[in-house]
Amino acid sequence: MKTLTTLFKSNVREYGMLIALIAIMAFFQYATEGILFKPVNITNLVLQNSYIIVMALGMLLIIVAGWIDLSVGSVAAFVGAIAAVLMVKYDFHWGVTMLISLLIGALIGAFQGYWVAYVKIPAFIVTLAGMLIFRGLTLVILQGEAVGPFPVPFQRLSSGFIPDFFKTEGFHSTTIVIGILLSILLIVLDWRGRRNQQKYGFEVTPFYFFVAKNVLITGAVLGLCYLMASYKGLPNVLVILFLLITAYAFLTSQTVIGRRIYAMGGNEKAARLSGVNTPRLLFGTFVNMGVLAALAGMIVTARLNTATPKAGVGFELDVIAACFIGGASASGGIGKIIGAVVGAFLIGVMNNGMSILGIGIDWQQAIKGMVLLLAVFFDVYNKNKS
Amino acid sequence: MSDVILEMRSITKTFPGVKALDNVSFSVRQGEIHALVGENGAGKSTLMKVLSGVYPYGSYSGEIFFQGKECRFRDITESEEVGLVIIHQELALIPFLSITENLFLGNEQSRKGIIDWNESVSKAKELLDRVGLHESPNTLITDMGVGKQQLVEIAKALAKKVKLLILDEPTASLNESDSEKLLELLLQLKEHGISSILISHKLNEVSKVADSITILRDGATIETLDCQKDSITEDRIIRGMVGRDMTHRFPPRESKIGETIFEIRDWNVYHPLHEDRKVSNNVNLTVRKGEVVGIAGLMGAGRTELAMSIFGRAYGTRISGKAYKHGKEVDLSSIDKAIENGVAYLTEDRKSYGLVLIEEIKDNITITNLEAIADAKIVINEPKEMTVTSEYREKLNIKCSSIKQLAVNLSGGNQQKVVLSKWLFANPDILILDEPTRGIDVGAKYEIYTIINRLASEGKGIILISSELPEILGVCDRIYVMRDGKVVGELPASEASQEIVMKYIMTQQEVMA
Predict the structure, then answer these.
(1) Of residues B347, B378, B383, nearest to A255 (C-beta)
(2) How far apart are CA A15 and CA A206, in angstroms?
(3) Does B367 sit within 8 Å of A273, measured CB to CB?
(4) How far apart are CA B279 and CA B268, in angstroms?
(5) Residue B42 in contact with residue B200, Cβ under 8 Å?
(6) Residue B149 in contact with residue B178, Cβ under 8 Å?
(7) What is the sign, positive or negative, of the torsion defined by CA atoms of A225, A228, A234, A238?
(8) B112 CB contacts (<8 Å, ≥6 apart)?
(9) Between the N and C ends of chain A, which has fewer C-beta atoms within 10 Å?
(10) Higher confidence at residue A197 or residue B455?
């Protein structure tokens, strides 16, 4: 059992957060008398938190690079507003609108990235300015009114579900099939990775641990799919989320670009002196954040079916909190995509659970603040101990 | 005048792996200027840090007596309380505060927490008069030259009722006339009974003002010279500084030197902030295949600045000059281009510029050439990465529990080997090594020298910047000497001795070889 303890100790942050998430889920499941895990509520939970997770993916990269972006809420609202005006007032096709929106997000990211990476103005200031600028421009574009509703295909972005190819009554079979295929894929991938490592003679986790891990993951995937299937099936947005999370987890852990971002955040000067073009990389990180904020903006707008001047207020705080709860370091160089996703879910579950319990927004905020502080304290405490 | 104000008895201070001070005794008489000389790394600064309480009582062994009383300083405030003030090479003034505010920082002229500005300013004026600085007390530090800032530091010491003033390389960054003024001031303070310890590399200054001179070498006191009794020449001091046993500190090497592979012509670099200050002045330099070329000089001679400006313009502005590899001009205008063209630069400051400390050893090694271990230059092939980095671990004998250990947890010598690995992984033809053995123990130094020899025998050209003369002499084939951004001497190692090189370094006139 010694290996298990050392394994846990070396990954205490990630497992700790996962355990915290499970504990909080269990608590709310009990406190809400089973409402939390009702299929309809689980589906809602995903829909409500999808845009936080989308933005957390970009924010994690920015935080790992050593900076922060305060403007994402405003940018999301701004892009949502433009999409709304294009579709409702100018009758643009929804597909064209989405492309334009993503492009605008990229431009906004490039604008802010330019100031941070090339003019060397601290991101805190640049994005604080961006937060004000794009909030203001949102009001200008919407002229203070709510704009909507939108064409149905656009709404499906966040309120649609994948079609059921098997047409079973009351149960979404396709979802279950996807769940099973996904589980098999995950097991195969993990198994191949493990074999590969063994082939090169590297240390691998003990076999029982491998089995336990896969049983847990498969259980979670199948359980989630089962719950979804007994409601309306997999939401479109969950599919998008899954693809994005996979892509970004891969980008950060397996690619040259990802490795360079961590090096830049860990020691910018050393990275630069090692031949990493740090300004260009940082610029790219902000462009990426802009695109993801634009996507999140469209998801929010589609979900509400109107663009409002007040959309996205305070999103940046939930997004940043998700990253820090998920173990990212404010000084850069440390943080994982999975951590940020778990952090976002943790906040999401708390929001959802507390709302079901009828706890007012006042106490919700206070409690979330305490959780953020606790999570980071846990980090610092562990670092000092080792 | 001959009673002793300070006596340090058998001071020993060890760092992990290094004995920085070994049974050092040192005493200063009342009202004298006592110079402390020695090579970089001889232990001068360490001794002064022990004295001023930067290294608290208990972290060293030995005794300190000041004015006849034993002192056990726990921090720098305690040593300042009894009248011991140290002025560091890097000035500790706050740039955007005024002279007055700096003078009384931590010692504010206040009543019940409210600062009495009239009292402060009038006292500041008095202090400035004593050091001969004619500036308004409201001038901001940032608006003054380094020479004047130095005087403010001394005035600050006077404000603390200093009895023994310690100056660490006070004239290193001053020009001739400012240095003159400063030394004059020290003599004046002496008249008023303030003793000083002067750490300096500039032997002409030392012989001008010092009453006695203590020479440190390798963390031990070599001798103390009395300037009234002994006849002191610069040669005499240099001999004391460098004379040491040179056998077995360097692995033997046979140089097989080929054709010129790298050349720098008419290289000029300006300081990034003070745009009219030239930090490299018409430097010409060649490196041949299989050759180890040394650059000797004092700190601040412009060696690091030269190296970094060559390496993708990582330092300086308005860089001009040409670089040739194998006779063809090469573009070194950015760091990635320099690396692509086979130039590597190993920094003198491995913690700030060399390593990402919070990352694993393997990540640190591969960062210079990630494409080489990535499939399609995009996706990192982790098994390949592990294999490659494990090879370096073995070849360079990096002592670690795993290649996945964090760099921060390695000893200095092993960290340096990781930095070396990372540059070897970039597969350069020309390696610029800036103080590659700074702060690492003798055993690790020997290993680094062995690696340098091996690289040279593989046909690489190596430029070695070092402040340790024995190292330059023991490892290099040819030596350049730099002073004030200029190459002031070039000589084959076979003709060089420490005395000759030291003369190039120290002497103000150009010496023709």
Answers:
(1) B378
(2) 17
(3) no
(4) 8
(5) no
(6) no
(7) negative
(8) none
(9) N
(10) B455
State the DSSP H helix or E strand holding residue B19, giving kind and residue range, or none if neither: strand B18-29
CB-nearest to A259 from B345, B347, B380 is: B380
Q: Report the residue of chain B nearest A199, measured CA to CA.
A: B383
Pairing of strands B292-296, B478-483: parallel
- Nearest CA among A284, A247, A246 for reference residue A67: A284
The DSSP secondary-structure symbol of B219 reads: T
Beta-carbon separation of B354 and A273 below 8 A: yes
Helices (H) and strands (E) in chain B, counts: 16, 24
Give the three-state DSSP class for B313.
coil
Per DSSP, what are the bridge partners of residue B491? B479
Cβ atoms A161, A44 nearer than 8 A: no
Contact criterion met (CB < 8 Å) for A273 and B345: yes
User: What's the burial of B82, exposed, middle or buried (CB within 10 Å: 0-12/13-18/19+)?
Assistant: middle
Rounded Cα–Cα distance for residues B41 and B513 (Å): 28
- In the block, residue with structure tokens 């009202």: B31
Q: Percent of chain A having pLDDT more than 70?
A: 96
Interface size A-B, in CB pairs within 8 Å, comes to 84
HSE-up of A62 (CA within 13 Å, CB side)? 32
* Nearest residue to A268 via CA among B506, B104, B357: B357
**CB of A324 closer than 8 Å to CB of A376:** yes
* C-beta neighbour count of B114 within 10 angstroms: 8
Q: Is the pLDDT of residue B343 over 90?
A: yes
Secondary structure (3-state) at A332: coil
- Listing DSSP states for A89-110 in one string gives TS---HHHHHHHHHHHHHHHHH
Q: For position B246, what pLDDT does the model report?
A: 44
B323: left (phi over 0), alpha (psi -120 to 50) or beta: beta
The amino acid present at B235, given as its one-letter code, is D
Using alpha carbons, list the distances in angstroms from residue A32 to A355, B92, B241, B374: 10, 60, 80, 49
Contacts 24+ apart (CB under 8 A), B50-57: B50/B8, B50/B11, B50/B13, B50/B21, B51/B6, B51/B8, B51/B79, B51/B84, B51/B86, B51/B166, B52/B76, B52/B79, B52/B84, B52/B86, B52/B166, B53/B77, B53/B78, B53/B79, B55/B13
Tell me the residue length of chain A: 386
Cα maximum dimension of chain B: 78
Q: Are A302 and A154 in contact (CB under 8 A)?
A: yes
Q: Give this prediction's pTM.
A: 0.81
**CA gap B49, B51 in Å, rounded:** 5
CA distances from B296 to B201, B270, B293, B304 (A): 14, 20, 10, 11
User: How confident is residue A13, by pLDDT bands cut at 50, 70 and 90?
Assistant: low
Closest-CA distance, B345 to chain A, in angstroms, reads 8
- Residues of B within 8 A of A270 (CB-CB) are 352-356
Predicted confidence (pLDDT) at residue A2 exceeds the cutoff of 60: no
